Amino acid sequence: MRVRRETVEHPFGTMKARMGATHFLTKTLPKVAAEMALSVLAYNLTRAMNIVGIKPLIAAIAA
Fold first, then answer.
1. Total domains, the chain
2. 6-39: per-residue pLDDT in tens?
3. How many CA atoms does the CB half-sphere of 62 hold within 13 Å?
4. What is d(CA 2, CA 27) in angstroms, rounded to the nearest whole number?
């Protein structure tokens, strides 16, 4: 349970705290799934920028 908490709960806590994603703004499952996918994409891009750096990330995306 501790390992799960460390790996799984961190992204959701970060999205909730930094991005203000406390609740979904849309209704119906497909729209909520799309909203969640965008939130996760934003989290992953932010994390990639912090780990790799902005210039190498842009170079990797352009390649």
1. 1
2. 787 888 888 888 777 778 888 999 999 998 898 8
3. 6
4. 33
